[in-house]
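Running this now, will post back.
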Amino acid sequence: MDNVAAIYLEGIAGGHAREAVQKYTGHRYTQHSTGVGNGAEGFLAFFEPFVERNPKREIEIIRIFEDGPWVFCSAYQSLNDGAAQWVTMDMFYTDPDGLILEHWDTIMAYTKDSASGEDMVSGARDVDKTANTDASKALVLEYTKQVLQEGEISKIPDFVSDEIIQHAFTIGAGRAGLAKWVSSDESGSYEMLFHLMGQGDFVVTYGKRHAQGKDIAVFDLYRVADGKIIEHWMNEEEISPREAWGNSGKF
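Update: finished.
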């Protein structure tokens, strides 16, 4: 987990991309951020010009946790005094020494005005490590299958607290806002759950939706309390055409 934070804060925010990618990645670095090539050289080909293009880089890691060899990280980025602001969600696979072997991400513009009135990155940050990780993951897995994939809107109360705090930019407040969004054309169909990981009361899923003619890579981050989802963040990115990929793609 420390290596993930370091490649962000030293390599990108600190402008030491070459040193960071050499220190914190392992015998391979398989890349799924579609604009970036594989390996250390692919990382450098993207981020060395990025550092030059954006001399002012403020990056804050908002949430980070691990599940065995998997690490999840969400960050807020402000570039050149706020000229561009981004929210990223990243998932990493690491080797037994914690060196990064593989990376997936979505990047979304930060916007203050959300459908629910909640900020995209605000809310609980620290993992409650005393919470039952297996129970949290099982709850989110069944919610993903039954509500998002099978469209059982009536089952939302089985999984989601009536006090849910909604940070997803396009989803309205409360269970009602969630139900409206899940059944909308904007939500579309949740076609694939690629990976689920969690620690304590936090669980994240990475998958693919198809909506309004577009394939969308999406991270859903959940916080669980008292056996229900109490907080939700979502970060999504339209999947670019295959010819634009710099690697094997988002998954």
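The CA atoms of residues 37 and 72 lie 21 Å apart. More later if anyone needs it.
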